[in-house]
Design brief:
246 residues, mainly alpha, two-stranded antiparallel ribbon, 10 helices
């Protein structure tokens, strides 16, 4: 792949991610976008559950496989290393778009808030969106989404291994991007069965994937420095739980 083609590819994927993420916020919050978590086809509960859970399973499978070091090494045989991250982001966008496109609504209301409670929950929703966006760019958003790599490839430079940096939100929780996402899933003034399903399954996956996969890779990369960080800073909630004595 030529350097100019790689650069255009990486920047285009970055723009596509921005559009997909913006649509996903509207999809979860049920505003602005034409199809949300509570609109679209409505079938039987069993059919809707089967389709929605299947879509989420496909989305999770991509994240669990492509984000791992072994999968990255396999991709390096097929693609230039400079576009590996952009390709991961592209598949993420397509997988998320498939979830939103084929999602089956479960519109029955679990709870509905009014007045001050509704306003407070919407504020939490907005805070979750902002937290995710800020957290994704506090370290190096361009590298996270693959732009830094294609820029370096275009200029004939290497991207150095970044040290463990802990700016801002990362001193409160180890994974503030995920914390923000969980806030957006649960901050619902009107919680339908469909959104509850999305919130429960997404939250469960985030907790398991971060604890069992992401943090394992981070320990391998940063060693004792990250292990010390794990002991000092909570994973997702800015509350330190007491450790059980041995």
């Amino acid at each position: 792949m030529g350097k100019r083609v790689a650069l255009v590819y990486g920047v285009t994927v970055y723009a596509l991610f921005g559009l997909t993420w913006a649509y996903f916020i509207g999809f979860v919050g049920d505003f602005v976008v034409p199809k949300s978590v509570d609109t679209g086809p409505v079938g039987s509960t069993v059919e809707a559950l089967a389709i929605d859970l299947g879509l989420l399973a496909l989305f999770f499978a991509h994240h669990s496989v492509m984000a791992r070091a072994r999968a990255k090494r396999v991709l390096e045989w097929l693609l230039p290393p400079a576009v590996e991250r952009s390709s991961y982001v592209l598949v993420s966008c397509l997988a998320l778009a498939l979830v939103m496109w084929q999602w089956r609504a479960l519109p029955a209301v679990v709870w509905q808030l009014e007045g001050a409670a509704r306003v407070a929950v919407l504020v939490v929703f907005g805070a979750g969106v902002v937290t995710s966006l800020v957290a994704s760019h506090l370290l190096d958003g361009l590298e996270l989404f693959g732009v830094r790599q294609v820029l370096a490839y275009f200029r004939g430079r290497a991207v150095p291994q970044a040290p463990l940096r802990l700016p801002g939100l990362y001193r409160l929780v180890r994974h503030p991007l995920m914390t923000g996402m969980i806030m957006t899933f649960w901050a619902a003034p009107m919680m339908s069965e469909g959104r509850l399903l999305l919130a429960v399954v997404m939250t469960g996956y985030i907790v398991l994937a971060v604890k069992l996969l992401e943090e394992r890779d981070l320990r391998r990369t940063f060693g004792a420095e990250y292990e010390r960080y794990q002991r000092e800073v909570p994973m997702l909630l800015p509350v330190k739980l007491p450790r059980r004595s041995s």
